[in-house]
Design brief:
The protein has about 150 residues and is mostly helical. It contains 7 helices and no strands. Helix 6 (about 85-100) packs antiparallel against helix 7 (about 105-120). Mean pLDDT is about 80; it is low at about 130-154.
């Protein structure tokens, strides 16, 4: 009998995803364009949501869905101005975080491919953010977004 290990387990489980998210948000904390996207004074709640989402996506605990429901990433990001510049800044910080993990080439490529595709999918405008730094927003909302009954999911 063959047991298949999840990507989550193969790369080191919780510790790996916690480190990825911690390194990522360390960059976001000092980024003048991205930091205003997070209205909470402490980035901890946003970091926890991202970590839970990534852990669940890659085969770890289903804590994200248990606490927040279906991920519905496009819907959760819709209120934010996610243009290509915001996407690229998000990816730059994520690149540093992924590189910091020292994963095997196959695991690194698999993770990075997903992160790139996800970041590109979140772009919802090609208009520059303009002079409103509070609108130049990217990842995760502070409160759960729950669609009305019957609303399609992403």
């Amino acid at each position: 009998m063959t047991t298949t290990r999840s990507f989550y387990d193969e790369v080191g489980g919780h510790a790996t995803f916690a480190r990825l998210v911690e390194t990522f948000y360390r960059g976001v904390a000092d980024d003048e364009a991205l930091r205003p996207m997070y209205p909470e004074e402490d980035l901890g709640p946003a970091a926890e949501r991202l970590r839970m989402f990534l852990e669940q996506y890659w085969g770890g605990p289903a804590t994200y869905s248990e606490r927040r429901g279906h991920p519905r990433l496009r819907m959760r990001h819709a209120p934010f101005h996610v243009d290509p510049a915001a996407r690229d800044r998000w990816l730059a910080h994520m690149r540093v975080a992924v590189d910091d993990l020292g994963l095997s080439p196959l695991h690194e490529a698999t993770l990075w491919d997903y992160l790139e595709r996800a970041a590109h999918a979140m772009v919802n405008t090609f208009e520059p953010a303009g002079g409103d730094p509070g609108r130049a927003t990217l990842p995760l909302r502070t409160e759960p977004a729950r669609p009305a009954d019957g609303e399609p999911s992403d």
